[in-house]
Amino acid sequence: MIQWLNDAKLHDSMKKLFPILGVLTAILLIYALYQALVVAPTEQTMGDVQRIFYYHVPSAWTAFILLLVNFGASVFYLVTRRSTADIVALVGAEVGVVFLTVNLVTGPIWARPVWGIWWTWDMRLTSTLVLWLIYVSYLFLRRFSSSGETPLLAAALAVLGALCVPFVYFSIWFFRTQHPQPVLGGGGSIDPRMLHVLLINWLAFSCFAFLVCWSRYRLEKLQREVDAAHAMESLLEPRESVR
Amino acid sequence: MSAPAAVTRVTLLKDLRLEWRSKDAINSMLFFSLLVVVVFSFSFDPSAEESRQIAGGLIWVAFLFAAVVALNQTWAREIRNQVLDAYRVSPAPSNSLFIAKTLGNFIFVTVLEALMTPLFIVFYRLRSIGPVWQLLLVVMVGTWALVVNGTFFAAMSLRTRSREIMLPLLLFPTSIPALLAMVQATTSILSGESAHFWIVLLVTYDLVFTTVCLLLFETVLNAE
Amino acid sequence: MTETAPPPIITVSNLIKQFGRFAALRGVTAEFSAGKLYAILGDNGAGKTTLLRTLAGLNRPSHGQITILGESKFHDICHEVGYMAHPSLLYDEMSGMENLEYFARLYGIAGNSRCAEVIRAVGLDPDLLRPVGQYSQGMRQRMSLARALLNDPRILLLDEPFSNVDLHSAKEMVRLLARARDNGRTVIIVTHQGSLLEGAADEFVWMEFGKIVERTRGLTRGLKK
Lengths: 243, 224, 225
Hints:
The complex is a heterotrimer of chains A (243), B (224) and C (225).
Chain A: H1 2-6, H2 8-39, H3 53-80, H4 83-115, H5 123-144, H6 150-178, H7 192-236
Helix pairs in contact in A: 2-7, 3-4, 3-6, 3-7, 4-5, 4-7, 5-6
Chain B: H1 4-21, H2 23-43, H3 49-72, H4 76-80, H5 83-89, H6 94-124, H7 132-157, H8 163-190, H9 196-221
Chain C: E1 8-19, E2 22-33, E3 37-42, H1 48-55, E4 63-68, H2 74-77, E5 81-84, H3 96-106, H4 113-121, H5 137-149, E6 155-159, H6 167-182, E7 186-190, E8 203-208, E9 211-216
Parallel strand pairs in C: 3-7, 3-8, 5-6, 6-7
Antiparallel strand pairs in C: 1-2, 1-4, 8-9
């Protein structure tokens, strides 16, 4: 897996494909937007405001997948200490946090017209908030770590954070059953036409996420290569002055 | 060679002895705990019925503040003369150090809680409808949850800039489910309801996180 | 002059240690034999401390290999190594004896007799109740040396042990270290004060910019700096 990811041929072909994939993703996103705003049936109780649902939900799903990637890559790093795994973990967390933010921002935008309040402590929104806090703290650790072993510390935190997730959901779920609040997005079954639009949007989001992740991965990889080159330079030449 | 349990015991005793000797630390933290309770009483009027209803939450937030102050000095002595290096060079297992430090923090924070609780009870005229032994169980299990993660993150913060802010920054998010459980359990017991789910959640949380922290501590300790 | 050279007890092979872009060790290759006292000298930033810390297992090398007593993992031979640095590695609030009792337990040494013996060996009083934080620097470093000697290590790694130490204490320590060398121990000392070790050291190892540039018998260097 690591070798495949680092394969020069892959990077080359991605370089060529990227613009095409970018355009295709843009088209898909526009199509998905059209589906969400025009084609999808109007929800009976909330009206057109409900359409934000097609952004609110897929962003969460995409985020979960990315954070799962972060967890997997972190465990892989702890076992193998391969720096590629560390970069994948970083990318997963960063882009995952972005999508979580989208979810957190669309929540209030939805809640306000429907219930007249900016925030509702409903189960999903609250859980997303806690998840967001956990992974932002992960990003802070990466930023503030002064040690050369940042990847190790970050991987350890990622494991702890990921293990926390089931507890977050269980605790908030039970809390909500005891203290019910209006639920964003409602419960129960979903109209199949709506499901269809939802899935299209999720596909578009996933493609977009993939492109963003790839770019970020490339960027980080190049940055590390530059750092390694500088380090190699420092290794070969004696320094004029003391650090 | 050096049996893990013996190392834990010896380290814990050493820490307790050192805490006892430099009573400044204990005294200032006890006073801080008192201040927290008083400040809360001014912020959340104890005579109001609503305040008594949220007392379960208030008390745990107060415990959390006290815990962070205690946790921040977990490794202070080991950092001072680079004693941690001496530990790392020795054959003593890192996990023994972790358990010893966690137990030390647990005792320390429990002492602070033991001071704050009677004050809360008196100020907020708290009465428990549910059994008190359950409350004690919740306090034990909840404090362990805070302390085990706190000791681990305190060690992690050693390798960061802005050490003192990193500890709460890392601790609070992962502690949220445990905090929710502690508060809900306390509130339930105070009002005579069942806290069964929350206690089970807390115990599971403790087991999972203690195990993972033990598995990862050596890695974190030696990250330099 | 030498019969058969004793096998090296420490082998360092192309050791590289980088901190981000800064290379503290740029390819150190060396061998250290048993029963010898080595002094590592060099300017600030030469990599002396990094080398010693890497030998003591406190740093992971970026590249290269270290073999101590035939083992590549420090933890396997950690009971044979004593480490001492410029900070005392002792708890300021405990007495010398209390400190040593604690560290003795970390090494699985029971009882107090070894602690008392080692404190006396460095010229201090085991019954002194004064906390280590109130010692003079010379006393503190001697107590730190006692701690390093607790487990009767075959290898002693010392990082600037004589810094800010009074001459009498420093000379005491050199005497002790020379005696340890005579008993077959390997002693490696990083220091700025090479003159203290003249006569005691078997070899002077000169480092510059993360590499060993010369190894001499005495304090005069053959190669120009």
